[in-house]
Specification:
heterotrimer; A mainly beta (110); B alpha/beta (812); C alpha+beta (317); B: 812 residues; alpha/beta; FAD/NAD(P)-binding domain; Enolase-like, domain 1; elongated; C: 317 residues; alpha+beta; Beta-Lactamase; seven-stranded antiparallel beta sheet; six-stranded antiparallel beta sheet; 8 helices; 19% helix; BFD-like_2Fe2S-bd_dom_sf (chain B); NO2/SO3_Rdtase_FeS/sirohaem_BS (chain B)
Chain lengths: 110, 812, 317
Amino acid sequence: MSWIDVGHIDDIPLRGARVVKTMQGCVALFRTGPDEVFAASDRCPHKGGPLSEGIIHGRQVTCPLHNWVFSLETGSAQGADNGQIQTYPLRLEAGRLLLDGDALSKRTAA
Amino acid sequence: MTKQKLVVIGAGMASGRMLETLSDLAPGAWDVTLFNAEPRGNYNRIMLSPVLSGEKSYSEIVTHDAEWYEAHGVTCRFGEKVTAIDLAGKTVTGENGAVAYDKLVIASGSTPFIVPMPGHDLEGVIAYRDLEDTNRMIDVAGNPDAKVVVIGGGLLGLEAAAGLRLRGVDVTVVHLNSHLMERQLDEAAGYLLRRALIDKGITVRCSANSKEILGKDGKVRALLLDDGTELPCDLLVMAVGIRPNVALARDSGLAVGRGIHVDDQMLTSDADVLAVGECVEHDGAVFGLVAPLYDQAAVAAKTLTGQSACFVQKELSTKLKVTGCDLFSAGDFAEGDGREDIVFRDPARGVYKRLVIENDVVIGAVFYGDTTDSSWFFGLIRDKTDISQMRDTLIFGPNMQGASVDPMQAVAALPADAEICGCNGVCKGRIVEAIEAGATTLSEVRAQTKASGSCGTCTGLVEQVMAVSLGDAFKMPATAAVCGCTDLSHEDVRRLIKSQELKSQDAVWQELGWSTPNGCHVCRPAINYYLLADWPLEYRDDPQSRFVNERNHANIQKDGTYSVVPRMWGGITTADELRAIADAADKYNVPTVKVTGGQRIDLLGVRKEDLPAIWYDLNKAGMVSGHAYSKGLRTVKTCVGKDHCRFGTQDSTGLGIKLEKLLWGSWTPHKVKLGVSGCPRNCAEATCKDVGIVCVDSGYEVSVGGAAGMDVRETELLGKVATEAEAIALTTAFIQLYRENAKYLDRGYKWVAKVGLDWVKSQVVDDLENRAALIARFDLSQTVYRKDPWAEHAAQAETYQPLADLTLEAAQ
Amino acid sequence: MNVVAHTSTEPFIRVAEVWVPKGERLVCSAGDYNGLDGFEAASRKTSFAKGEGLPGKAWSEARPVVLKSFDGSYFQRTEAAKEAGLTAAVAIPVFAEATLLAVLVVLCGDDAVRTGAIEVWTTDADDMLTLDDGYYGAAEEFEFVSRHTHFPRGQGLPGGVWASDTPILMRDLGAGYKFIRASAAGKAGLTTGIGFPVPVPGGSPYILTLLSALGTPIARRFEIWDARAARMGKSGNAVLIDGVCERAGALWKDDGDGLNSDAPTASPWKGVIGQVLGTGLPVVARKNVGLPEGYNAFVGLPIHRGGGLSHVVAWYI
C-alpha cells in the first residue's frame, strides 16, 4: 500500500469536509470528530451533488441537493434511498492525513 | 547469608511498592540505600491533590515512614541528588559521596514539562509535581485576593484547580483544546465536567493558547493569551505534561529513548541495572498512571529475587479526584471504521455514559455522573468479551442483562410518592388524583397540578402516568418532534433553551437527551439558530451546522457552481458599482448575469474556487454580500419616493436604505424580505413582504406577515407611526420578536398566524418598554453579526481550494 | 501513627436524640444521654406537634435550627435542661424529598472550657453562603469571624460542600494550613472539620459543619460513607470513602487509580452503619460492643438525595 500525505487534520473544520482532486474525480475527507476522518467519493449517486458541502452528523453526511443521507463507514445510502458511494482507506498519523494511493488508482467507475 | 547491596535512585510510588514487594519476597536479603532528590521518603504523590485542598493531611499520605525504613534495613539519603552512575565500577555517586551496588534500580520518575514560552522562568511559575509545589499553592491561598492561573486542563491541572478553589482561591484553567481532558473524555463528557467545575466557581477557558507569561520585578503578574487577553495571577501553575527523567541514565551510557529502555523483566541495557516507574520506556510506551507502575514494581522485585516475571502492558482506566465529579474512562475512542456508539443520557441527574464497540467487543467507555459497574465494563474491555448477545441492554450494566426494560412497566411500578415533576414537586399520586377527578388531557393535568408547567422536561413522564392510568382512553399526542433524534417539538426545544439557559450545542444534546451524538441535518441547523438567537454573546454561529449556501455564502446551483449577489442598498447603485460587477463577470467568465426581483444583480455560474477572489474584487469596489442565500435579511425593495416621484409622500428610498443597513447580517428563522413604498400606490409591492412599510402624508403604515412565493398573503397592519425613527423602531422590534420566538424555517406570516397579530401588537406596539428591550437585544446581536461574511471568508481563501491536488502528481 | 495519650476528654456534644414522626407528632425514639437521667426522663415523656418545640420547629420550617438560649423560647424542656447543664441545642431534620423521616437533636453544655463549633450555613440574596446560626462554646473570636464570612460556591469547607453536594472532611484547620478562617481556628484550637448538606424540601441549600477541637472534640473519629446508587448500584450497601480517627489515623484507602480499593463496606442492617442504611433514619447508640475499638458512643446521620440514601456521616466518641 502506498500512503499519500494530503494534509493535516486541522485543515478540515470539525464536522466539515475538504476535497482532494484525484485522477478519478474528487475525493472528500469528512472530519466527523476531533480525531476521526473518513474518505469517500464527493459525488452523490443521485444527481451528482457535492457531498463535501453537506451537513455532517454522527458518522453520516446529508447531500445538500436532495437530502440523501450516506453512512461514511459503509458508503451506503440510508433510509428509503438506494445508492452507494465509494469509500477509501484513510490513516491518521500524528495529525497527518494519509490516503491509500493504490485504492485511488484501482477505483472502477461508480 | 551476606546481604546483597541494592541502590535505589528515587523514592516515588513505584520505588516504594517495589521495596515492599521485595521485602515480602526476600526479607532481610538486601541492604538497601535509597536516594531521593526530594527531601523526604516515599509518599502517595497522587494524593497531593486532597492535601492541596485540605481534605487530607500530608502525614496521611506518607506510605513509608522512618520506622518502616529502619525495620527493613533501608539507608535513606533524602534530599541528596545522584550525580553519576558508574556502570563498569558498579557505583552510584551522590552529592555526599559514592556507594557501591550489586544491583541498581533507577526510579527517577519524570519531570513536569514547562512550556518554554517567554516568562517561563519568572518567580511564581511552578509545576505541580511534589510537596514543595503543593505548599506553594497552599501558601498563595493564605492571601484572600490571590489569583492563580493553571495552564493545562488535563487530570493534574483540574485537580490543582479544584484544590485551590476549596482553599478559597480565584482560579482560572487555561486549556489548549476545545474540551477538557480530551485524552480521556469525549466532547459530551468534557462538557459535563466543565459545567461541574464552573459550578464550583472555577473559570475555564478552552481553546485558549498561552502566548507569554508577563512579569513585574522578576515575578509573575499575568498570563497573556494569543487573542490578547491578559489573565492576572499571583501564581502560575503549569500542568501540561511530564517527561521521563532520563538524563542520569543517558549520561551513564544506558540505552535511552523517550524513557529508559527496559525489557519485560524491567532490565535495562545493563544486566545489573533495572528501572521502574515513569522514567521507563517499555515497548515504545511511557507511563503516567499508577496501575502499570505497580505492575512494574512487582516484576522488578521478582526479577531481583531471581524469580521469573513478565511485565505486560494492560488496559488502563482513569478516575478524577475532584470531589463531586464522578468520572471514569477507559480504552480507546480513536478513529476507525466499523465502530459503533451506545449512548445513555439522564439529563436530570447529569449522567452521561458512552460505550464504543467494534466487532462485538467493547473497546472504550466514558462514564460521567454514574460510575456504577465501571469495573464490570472495564473487565469487558480488558477481556475483549463478545457482547453481541447483550448489545441492547449492555449500557444498563451487569444487573440488567437478560431483562427487557419496558418503560411503561417502570412507570406503573412507581410508588405514589415518586416525584414526577421536580420543578413543582408533584408526585405520581397527585397526578393520579387529578386524573381520577376528571383530567383526561395533559393541559388539564397541568392546570390542576402544575406538573410539566415549568421547565417541561417531565412532560413525557406525565403522559406515561396518564397512559398507565387511563389506558386506551388517553391518546398520546402526536406533536411533531423536531426529527428522529428527539421526541421534543421545536416549541419545546426553544422554550427549554431559554429556561434552562442552554448555551452550547453540547448542552442541548446532553440536557435534552438527544439520541445522537451531534444531531442530524434536520435538527442541527435549527438548534444552531435557536442558540445564536437566544445567546448572541455566548454562542457563535457554527458554519458546520448550516446548509451549504449559508456556509459558503453563495447559492449552490444544480451543476455545483454558485451564484454571487452583491448588495444594492435599497435598490440604488452607482456607475462604479456596475462597472465592478461587469468586470467581475468578465474576469471570472460568469456565464449568466441576471437582474433579480429583489432589485439587484446576480452573477450565476461562479466556480467554488473562484468565490474568495470574486468577493475580494467586489469588496474592493465597496460592495458586500447580498445574503441572497441566507436565512436573514434578503432585500429591502423600494420605490423612488419623495426625492423624484411626484406622488411620493416620504423618502421611501432613504428609509429603505436605512433599514437595510440596520438589519443586514442578522440570522433569522427564515428569509426576511422588506419593502418600502413611497405612497399607497405601492410600487415597491410592500404589502406582500415580511415587513412592508407604506408611506403616507401623516407618517408610515408598518404592516407585517406578507408573502409572495408558493403562498401569497397580504400583510396586516401592525401600527401607524408618525416619524421615520419610529417606523424603524417598530420594524426592528418586530424582527427581533420573530427571531426570538419563531420555529426555524417558519416564514414571518406562518409565525404571525400561529401566535396571533394581537399578541405581536401587545409585545411591540403597546408595550414601549418591551419594544425598547427587543431593540436593545437586536443591537447586541448585531454587534456580532452585522458584518460582511465575504470579507471574512476571502481571508480564508485556501479553505475553498481542494485540500490537495493529486492530478498534478506523477503517475503512481 | 503515634498513639495519643488518652486523657479524659470532654465531648462537645453532651446529648444526642432521634425524634421520629408518629402520626402528627414527633416522639423520641432513641437517645444517648450519657448519664443525664433527669433530662432523659423529661425527653422520653414529651412529644411535639409540627411547629412545637425545637424538633417541631425544624420540621415545620424545614431547615436545621440552632437554639442558644432556652429561657423564654419555644424550647419545652427548659427546666430539665438547666438542671443537666445543657444550654444550647441544634436540630437537624432528615428529609427524603418532601417527607420528614426524623429529626436529630444534639445538645451542648455551655462552659468556658469546651470549644468546638456547630454551624448552619445557607445562601443569602447574593447567592453566597452566610452563617444562618451556630453554636461555638467558648470560641468567641472564631464565632465573630464566622459571622462575618461569606463563601461563594466551591470555596472553603461550606462552599465546597455546597458545590459538590457531598460531605467533606477537612484536616488540620489550624495554623499551618491556610483554611480560610485559619488563624481564628488555630487560636481556638479547632483542628478538624466535617461539612455535609442537609437536604430540605424546596431545595434551599443548608450546610451543616461540625468543627472539632482536640481537647473537646465533637468526636474523635469521623466517617463518611457513600451509599449512592451511582456508586453502589442497587445493593443498598455503602462504602467508607473518607474518615479520620484519633487512634487509627486515616480511614480511607485509595491506591490512586480508584478501581481496586478494599475499603470497608457496610450492608443494610448489619452493624451500626447498617442500621442507618436499613432504616434510613439517624441512629445514636452507646454500647461497648459493635463499635470500633476504643469507642463507646456513635451517631450516624443519613443524607437522602435523588430518591435514595446518598451518604451517611458518622461520628464516634
